[in-house]
Design goal:
The protein has about 400 residues and is of the alpha/beta class. It is about 30% helix and about 25% strand. It folds into two domains: about 200 residues, FAD/NAD(P)-binding domain (3-Layer(bba) Sandwich), CATH 3.50.50.60; about 140 residues, FAD/NAD(P)-binding domain (3-Layer(bba) Sandwich), CATH 3.50.50. About 45% of the residues are buried. Belongs to the NADH dehydrogenase family.
């Protein structure tokens, strides 16, 4: 029997750990149940941190962990899924490809930044969506020091007032001073179509964010979108033109395109609709998890967000349940009632909220310490020690905040 997991992000990593854990609990050998993880590199990109400086350091190796728990790493990109023949076509680079059969499949392909067809966006826009994107932006920021000190050089426009946009924008004043000098006057502007910043955060948390933006001198242009970009800057839907040599796009994400190959219902974000066990209804042998899946967190109507907090726990349940079906044991319905947000606010600290109503628990330096602990410890892979790695993937305990 073979269980194939596509993706080495948070959901894919925990799917592999959890499936291996259940296999170990039931005394099944890796020869009887092979668990294979397919990804271009055996690496976890710590995507929630890509707004920080030195993004090239924000990865974690997975090969030693996978070897420790007897998970087979298959290098390559999954290009096609045939759910009738239960095979995955994998491009291994240099024109080479191979086919991998499966008895159960876990789609953990993550998400991609949504880039609309706005004139100039592809040519002049930057992002922190992927490791390559973040490295490109970082090199560009360092290159600004070699340019004339114009308003456009020192002005950065961040498009999107959600979590990613806020974290990128609030980190940028410090990053620019480190590059251009402590006396450099940087101008950061967040542009968002909504009438308020961080509309999903609610009335209790939003004033904390507003205060942080004011403290850092970050401007906003709300109720406006981007009409076009060019070498001189951006033109807003309001007609305003902002001189800028750096535009960071952070306005929305969609499930990775591979989900479109699964003949099942999807939501507006491209996520596969799944049942409480994270199965894809109507498609035999396929589970979806993380940003590839739209899953109910509880019986109150709350749905998992496209975040690493939900992806890790969803991954653990998906891996467990896919393996459980092959082992002939009971599955565990996914649930995630605990929900927190910890939003980095750069030199203004951080914001920690609990619950779907975003009740504020910590702000400022205290919340910042928690954010740093999350970013540098909690979200990293377990050590490559078999017992500890397997124990870390109990689906009932992953991200139990």
């Amino acid at each position: 029997m073979r269980l194939v997991i596509i993706g080495s992000g948070f959901a894919g990593m925990y799917a592999a750990l959890s499936a291996a854990r259940l296999r170990d609990i039931h005394g099944t050998s890796p020869k009887e149940l092979e668990i294979a993880l397919v990804a271009p590199e055996p690496t976890l990109v710590v995507r929630p941190r890509l707004y920080e400086p030195n993004p090239e350091t924000l990865t974690a190796p997975l090969l030693d962990v996978l070897n420790a728990i007897d998970v087979v790493y298959v290098q390559g990109s999954a290009e096609m899924v045939d759910t009738q023949s239960r095979t995955v076509q994998i491009s291994a680079g240099n024109g080479a490809s191979k086919s991998l059969s499966y008895d159960r499949l876990v789609v953990a392909t993550g998400s991609r930044l949504f880039r609309p067809n706005i004139p100039g966006l592809a040519e002049y826009g930057f992002s922190v969506d992927s490791l390559d994107d973040a490295v490109t932006l970082d090199k560009h920021l360092h290159g600004l020091a070699q340019r004339p000190a114009t308003n456009g050089r020192n002005t950065i426009v961040v498009v999107g007032g959600g979590f990613t946009g806020i974290e990128a924008a609030t980190e940028l004043p410090g990053r620019l001073r480190a590059i251009l000098g402590k006396d450099a006057k940087a101008r950061i502007i967040i542009v968002d179509r909504n009438e308020v910043i961080a509309p999903d955060m609610g009335g209790e948390a939003r004033p904390v964010i507003d205060e942080a933006l004011q403290k850092l001198g970050i401007e906003t242009r709300l109720g406006a979108g981007i009409a076009s970009l060019d070498a001189s800057g951006v033109t807003l839907s309001s007609g305003e033109h902002i001189e800028s040599q750096t535009v960071v796009w952070a306005a929305g994400i969609r499930a990775a395109p591979l989900t479109q190959q699964i003949g099942a219902e999807r939501d507006n974000f491209g996520r596969l609709l799944v049942d409480r066990d994270l199965r894809v209804p109507g498609v035999q042998g396929v589970f979806a998890t993380g940003d590839a899946a739209r899953a109910a967190c509880d019986d109150d109507g709350n749905v998992a967000l496209m975040s690493c907090q939900h992806a890790t726990r969803m991954g653990a349940f998906a891996g467990n349940n896919a393996a459980a079906e092959l082992l002939g044991v009971a599955t565990k319905p996914y649930h995630q009632k605990a929900y927190v947000t910890c939003l980095d606010l750069g030199e203004a600290g951080a914001l920690f909220t609990r619950g779907w109503d975003r009740a504020v628990e910590m702000v400022g330096d205290v919340a910042k310490k928690t954010k740093q602990e999350i970013n540098t410890i909690w979200i990293y892979p377990p050590k490559a020690e078999r017992a500890a790695a397997l124990a870390s993937a109990d689906p009932e305990r992953v991200t139990d905040l």
